[in-house]
Amino acid sequence: MEKGDVKIINKGLEDEMEIWGYRFCRWKLVLVGLGVLCTGGFLLLLLYWMPRWLLWATSRRTTIGEAEMLLLRSTDEFRRWFRARVRVMLVPGSDPFESPQDVPGETTKKVEIRYFTLHSTKYYWNGTVQNFEVLKGLEDLVLTCSAIHSDHSAGLTKDQQDYRRSFFGENEIDVKVPSLFKLLIKEVLNPFYIFQLCSVILWSTDSYYYYAGAIVFMSIVSIATSLYTIKKQYVMMHDMVAAHSVVRVSVCRGNSEIQDVMSTDLVPGDVMIIPTNGTIMPCDAVLISGTCIVNESMLTGESMPVTKINLPDPGCGQNGSAPGNPIYTIEEHKRHTLFCGTQVIQTRFYSGELVKAVVVRTGFSTAKGQLVRSILYPKPTDFKLYRDAYLFLMCLVAVAAIGFIYTIVLSVMHQVPAKTIIVESLDIITITVPPALPAAITAGIVYAQRRLKRVGIFCISPQRINICGQLNLVCFDKARTLTEDGLDLWGVQRAEDGSFCPSEEKACHEHLVTSAFVACMATCHSLTRIDGQLSGDPLDLKMFEATGWVLEEASEEETSLHDNIMPTVVRPPRQLLPESLPSSPEGHMSSYEIGIVRQFPFSSTLQRMSVVSRRLGDKRMDAYLKGAPEVVAGLCRGETVPGDFAQVLEKYTKLGFRVIALAHRRLEAKLTWHKVQNVSRDIIENSMDFLGLIVMQNKLKAETPKVLEDLQQANIRTVMVTGDNMLTAISVARDCGMIPPQHQVIVVDALPPRDTRAARIDWQYVDDPGPPASKDARFEVVEMGLEEVDAEERYHFAMSGKSFAVVMEHFPDLVQKLALRGTIFARMAPDQKTQLVEVLQSVDYYVAMCGDGANDCGALKRAHSGISLSELEASVASPFTSKTPNISCVPILIKEGRAALITSLCVFKFMALYSIIQYISVILLYSILSNLGDFQFLFIDMAIILLIAFTMSLNPAWKQLVAQRPPSGLISGPLLFSVLTQILVSLAFQVLCFLTVRNQSWYEKWTPASDTCNTTGLSMLTPNATEGRDHDERNIRNYENTSLFYISCFQYLIVAIIFSKGKPFRQQSYKNRPFLFSACALYFFTFFIMLYPIPAINSFLQIVCVPYQWRLMMVLIILANTAVSVLMETFILDTVLWRLVFSRGKHGGSDFAAASQTPQFAIDRWGAKCLSWLCCRGNRAPSACYARLAQELRLDPSWPPRPQTTTVAKTAENGFCTAIPAC
Predict the structure, then answer these.
(1) Which of 269, 780, 980, 1081 has the CB geometry, 3.0–4.6 Å to 773, for a possible disulfide?
(2) Backbone angles phi, psi at 680, to 5 degrees
């Protein structure tokens, strides 16, 4: 393929793909048809599995504009291939957003529109850019906020709606449930089942009917189970999506008519009316009038109601995307957008002007649709174990190829018939590649998922359980994750005339009733009454309750009587009114009532919220603002902000308090109610008067310190990612043990470029919690030597979201260095949390993200393991959801992940050894033109292998987290050494048994008349157990076969026991009762039939009677095999090589220092150095990027930066970063 012919679709997005065009070629189609006939359909199967080969074989390259078929490849690390057919539709126009008068009539010639569908998304041909593009919705028009009001608030005519529907399709998230027949065909055509089918046909031709029947039975059960599971998942997904998806809605037509239609008829541009009693939103829509209270738990996992307000209309005076008239995007205007699948609880509306919303997106383009698509078409799980599994299978195939060639050569030398040569040579392939491998490996994950469900952790992506076993870094949100959900008011610190008043414990005093400070606390919130109960953000609730005021909302009947929207009213209770004033009547009471006229909801990006209110009877309105202290102070007039603001704030935040700042402004009289409804918040939120601080106490959850201690002892690094103040976050990190008391915190204060000054980073060292800092510095500087800090790496970086953005843009060379020791990330926006997860993953950390689901959805989905603390049973925002509202679920998940990962590794090793052991037996028997019997295969595969493989996966997780992590893949030193040594041991003892039995004095070629058993003199052993039978044609019954059968049976059990690892990742095997019982029963049964032959069993298993002394010799061989296998696995591998040579020495924790300096540790370290020297491993760099980086930084004398220094970004003038003393 020429690179120049490649087009890119979804450029810059997560699902970016390269695309090539093809047209069918007749002569290629003919050749492929002949090939399919000649190969008996195998070529067709191969082309079905490899879509790119199908197009290469049947089509020729062409331009995308002329293509009949398209070949697509994802640009991510997985490089997945897809195939799509180009289709054509006829419509009366090419632009879906043509105005009604421009839509051609019926007599106009229709236009051909080319498109293709992939992953429930339609891509339309755009002749202008010569590429396919997705029509998302109204956002494609790039509209300003005022344009939505002026051009799209009237609604669409019926013709316009029908015309747009031809492009956007029905407004439904259609999860099609495939028929059982389609699922069956797709399942049966899996390469694994095709391989099994070929194996069954092969065995049937060789009269292995019983074993073939057993495999067919297993396959049928496996297929039926898989079909049931897949069908059930599709039905559950369909039911979940279909619930409330199709409803009747009212839409506005262009002629001011209101019409009821089905929600499936909605298209972008429709104006729908939100009913007063609420509804489930069938689409994404932007509010253009009124206010809604919405439950967005479906999207975020956070059940707290959210207030949505109408999109401001800056007016017609501003054109383009001026600052006061921004371009509308869903991301930037979330607080004005109602998302599909969310529940509208209440609405506030005008009399005669109902709550209206313009449809922005429909179907799979909506927020809910994108979530459903991510579930239906997930990205493959990129995990080393799965990559190594394919490599390991390829190795088994290579071994099978050797046996294949050996069998053909040996059979030709012995002049074996051609049919027998074909059957036996192909049979060796079916022996080497175990048919039950996928099911056996999956069993461990299924068992772990069940154990997690029992403790309240639900998983929608089971494959990620194994990845949890490799986690070495966990990011935690602070609020409602590390700390309690509720906040307690510790006190208030009002400011008057540019200085702070003494702190006060309560705000509900008589002398404060008329103050702007209390009025701000009473009005600046998003609380609402639902079923008579106050509901909203916990912080807002605590703040409002501290005032003692009462909130009243108008009923539906009262609202309909007013021309303007009936405001929410707050008022103080009578007991708080000054005694000097009469408390009766209405005259004086109403003068204290405040109506909330306009609300600007809290934005995590802006870190503030505000309201416009009016005291009843007052002609002018007031604006109240609350938010992060640094943000609020920046929006206030300088003379109103106390001079010791930074010091007072630092005092509280260092003590771990959450601090909220308040501000107030009297608005101009010219701002009427109608103007306020359309004014931008930027006009309101400036030139404020600073009112003071609210100090909230946010206690740690009881489980937090213990969980973090366990994670740190397990060398799992912990990071705090929060939207709270930095010093508060540092204080909480110290309190919970995330930052040990003796460790230093370095604040990364990055400043963007300004005028001619380049971007810079000021490195500031923060002291331990204590007295407030001096007035001349925001952070108290600590003068100390860094030699000890460098040596022990006892430092942590802390930075804000603003600094993080500057570092990402202007200091890319420092990003990974800061990520290596960054522990506190404060004031982080939701998208910055996602970026941080990606940075940590870029240095090879396996990252978990634990949050409450409110602002963490992107990070939860991006992390290797996202854990949402939600009361919902399952949240589509994260792979794991815990019903326990604290972080105790994190170590449980890691322990279960480690247990599942070790189980997968153990089962894989066991299944590989099973194949090789059986392979060795068959190869040895082929040398004498013999083989294992049908029922011998049946006994080994059914009674031993399947029973052991499925029961050895039942070991539960170990009780404690340990410092070391299990291997992440199969291609690693310990695992390869383990498998190879056991293969050599099995080979040696089978060859020993095979050669020894042929050199016995009693040995002769076995016939039905053989009487070797009587040489023992034991009359109980009847020599004529098989007398009367004809000599079998396949030469199954012989001494070599019987001896190898017994030895191999014990070898399967030996490797099963030594591979079934327990401590430190799983419970000991003796606690796994099903496995213990199965192994003991099989040991007993096999020993019994070997030492005390039963004629019926001998006949069934096609084994022969051997002398008693040979049975005793086999017992000695088995005991010796057991001793050598156990010695190699438990002593040489686990004790010596694992600890000294294969020990990682690369910890996932925040410190790379070794464990406690015990005598045993010193011996191990000395031995490791010696063995490393012998193995030439001394200078090998660590494999993980973060470990290599840590190694480099240890040798860098300039890292970490010195106190009071500044790093300047690279510019065209200097060309390098410089560190200079701070001024």
Answers:
(1) 780
(2) -75, 145
Q: Which among 1151, 1189, 1193 is positioned nearest to 840, based on CA atoms?
A: 1189
**Is 844 in contact with 876 (CB distance < 8 Å)?**
no
Residue-level length of the chain: 1223
Please give the pLDDT value at position 349. Answer: 67
Distance of alpha carbon 45 from its chain centroid, rounded?
33
Percent of the chain with pLDDT over 90: 10
Torsions phi, psi of 457, nearest 5?
-110, 120
Structure tokens at 695: 């100090």
Q: Which helix (H) or strand (E) holds 654?
A: helix 645-654
> In whole angstroms, how large is the CA radius of gyration of the chain?
37
Residue with tokens 């500087």: 781
Beta bridge partners of 748: 763, 799
User: H helices of 414-514, where?
Assistant: 418-432, 437-454, 464-468
> 3-state DSSP call for residue 997?
helix
The 10s digit of each residue's pLDDT in 199-212 is 788 777 766 677 67
* Structure confidence at residue 360 (pLDDT): 92
Q: Is beta strand 795-800 parallel, antiparallel or unpaired with respect to 744-751?
A: parallel
- Catalytic positions are 477
**Which residues is 457 bridged to in the sheet?**
882
DSSP E strands in 947-1039: the ranges are: none
Mean pLDDT of the chain: 78
* Amino acid making up residue 1028: G
Spatial strand order in the sheet of 608-615: 499-500, 488-496, 689-697, 658-666, 622-627, 608-615, 594-603, 568-571, 550-552
Q: Taking Cα atoms as reference points, which of 741, 717, 738 lies closest to residue 729?
A: 738
Q: Is the pLDDT of residue 1098 over 70?
A: yes
- The C-alpha angle 88, 92, 94, rounded to 5 degrees, equals 65
Which pLDDT value is given to residue 486?
A: 62
Question: Of all helices (H) and strands (E), which one includes residue 986?
Answer: helix 973-998
Joined tokens for residue 617: 């009877």
Choose among 574, 553, 550, 575: nearest CA to 565.
Answer: 553
Tens digits of residue pLDDT in 506-554: 777 766 777 888 889 888 888 887 777 787 777 788 888 888 888 887 6
* SS3 per residue for 535-560: ECCHHHHHHHHHHCCEEECCCHHHHC
